[in-house]
């Protein structure tokens, strides 16, 4: 009996060790995949999806080709994962979670745009918006890219429109404002300003757009004297 008990204890300990090793392996695998996505995002932002080279990506990530194909069936699968996981995450962080913190939607929209600029830093004026870049590059070439990126843009506009609707309910936004149209215009204006900044490689277009956007915001306020137009 003591020998049987010892064997059972050894089996329990062996099983626990195997489970711990499995969890550690899964964690390392998840970290490796996340690292590969991060490096791919940086490469795509700088060179575009079509300019992404797997050999360069793997050299920068310090991974083998076998490791790449362990996680992704193809370069296209990698690009779609960047959209689904990284770009969608950034969009939710900026225009979902961050914007929702503000009772005043107009203050929140401006702060969220500034937050986005801070996340990307100088790359915003040298490389532009990674989502818009990819949409311009790939929407006409691959329906999967187009559909996913369109869903991201629709989601961002919805976040902004929801914030404006909340402002209406709190008496901060004029009741006659079409929040969906206003949100579309606001986001399009910001994206256009980023495109101009990228073309000029300086932030003047961004600061000018922000200044004019504040003037537009005042026309949306319930107490801003904008009136119907």
Explain the overall architecture.
With 229 residues, the protein is mainly α. The chain folds into 2 domains: 1-72, Orthogonal Bundle (Arc Repressor Mutant, subunit A), CATH 1.10.10; 76-229, Tetracycline Repressor, domain 2. 80% of the residues lie in helices and 0% in strands. It is built from 10 helices and no strands. It has helices at residues 2-47, 54-61, 65-71, 75-100, 105-120, 123-127, 130-138, 143-169, 179-200, 204-220. Helix 8 packs across helix 9. It is globular, with a radius of gyration of 24 Å. The chain starts with a helix and ends in a 9-residue tail after the last helix.
Quick structural overview:
This protein has ten helices and no strands. It is mainly α and 229 residues long. It is globular, with a radius of gyration of 24 Å.
What is the average of the pLDDT values? 87
Overall geometric form: globular
> Can you identify the CATH superfamily of the largest domain?
Tetracycline Repressor, domain 2
Q: Give the domain tally.
A: 2
- Main β-sheet, in a few words? none
At the first level of CATH, the class of the largest domain is Mainly Alpha
Structural class: mainly alpha
Q: Percent of residues in beta strands?
A: under 5%
Report the radius of gyration as a whole number of Å: 24 Å
Uncertain parts: 18-27, 225-229
Give helix and strand order, one letter per element, not per position. Answer: HHHHHHHHHH
First and last CA, distance: 90 Å
Report the strand count.
Answer: 0
CATH fold annotation of the largest domain = Tetracycline Repressor, domain 2
Return the CATH architecture of the largest domain.
Answer: Orthogonal Bundle
- What portion of residues is helical? over 70%
